[in-house]
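Anyone up for a design puzzle?
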């Protein structure tokens, strides 16, 4: 028995469906699915697509919909959390997802996408599957800017310890600088970074946070690991202008640890 499938689905969906192509015979069976899901699966099986115009569903070949109803295509934007939009664009091309997309240079994690509801649904499905923490390319480069904690300290001298670590990183990264501000911009090979000390509210816990590309952050992590393995506990007062190791070690171990609250700042120089 032949039945007008789209007409039945239109009744179930409470709308009108306008079919632009020549009638074809289809064989399709579904159960325990909503009318909309059944409609979408049927179109996918027949390699068709649809647009919603004034509450009505326009069904036809995807190319025809793009040609005849381009101004009706849905345009929206999404933000990635862990992967770059460049990675996402590559996946869109590889999987042949029929959406048009653009990015804005000033925001490396925002992408604008235009397409039919089915195409956008496929795009969102891809985004949800790949934009996960385990896919963040910390070891494979990327030019997106992210923030990650690279060290922490807790206790009465926590801030002083992280400040000394930041001063030492300043020196190792960009030369002999004596800068003590909440954030600092230095140059690494892959771009500009910021090193920030952040206190957890209502606690004595502090984090050292680096803002930069994944490669920048990985470099800083390795530097901190080397610093801690070679120096152990950092002196609370690090003076990058010290001329000999004897004075630097004496100031750090004697006055920095012993009198960090009273004399740490006064006897730094």
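Challenge accepted. My sequence:
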């Amino acid at each position: 028995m032949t039945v007008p499938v789209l007409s039945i689905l239109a009744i179930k969906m409470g709308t009108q469906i306008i079919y632009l192509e020549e009638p074809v015979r289809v064989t399709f069976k579904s159960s325990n699915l909503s009318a909309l899901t059944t409609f979408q699966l049927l179109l996918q099986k027949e390699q068709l697509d649809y647009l919603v115009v004034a509450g009505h569903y326009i069904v036809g070949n995807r190319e025809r919909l793009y040609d005849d109803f381009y101004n009706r295509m849905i345009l929206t934007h999404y933000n990635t959390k862990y992967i770059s939009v460049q990675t996402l664009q590559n996946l869109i091309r590889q999987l042949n997802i029929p959406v048009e997309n653009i990015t804005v240079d000033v925001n490396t994690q925002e992408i604008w996408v235009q397409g039919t509801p089915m195409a956008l649904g496929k795009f969102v499905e891809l985004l949800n599957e790949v934009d996960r923490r385990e896919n963040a390319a910390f070891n494979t480069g990327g030019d997106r800017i992210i923030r990650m904690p690279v060290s922490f300290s807790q206790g009465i001298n926590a801030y002083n310890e992280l400040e000394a670590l930041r001063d030492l990183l300043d020196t190792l990264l960009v030369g002999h600088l004596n800068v003590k501000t909440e954030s600092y911009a230095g140059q690494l090979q892959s771009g500009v970074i910021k090193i920030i000390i952040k206190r957890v509210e209502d606690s004595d816990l502090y984090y050292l946070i680096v803002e930069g590309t994944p490669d920048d952050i990985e470099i800083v992590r390795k530097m901190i690991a080397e610093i801690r393995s070679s120096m152990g506990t950092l002196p609370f007062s690090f003076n990058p202008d010290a001329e000999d190791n004897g004075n630097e070690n004496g100031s750090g171990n004697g006055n920095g640890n012993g009198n960090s609250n009273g004399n740490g700042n006064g006897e730094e120089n």
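A detail worth pointing out: Residues 175-191, 236-240, 242-269 have pLDDT under 50 and may be disordered.
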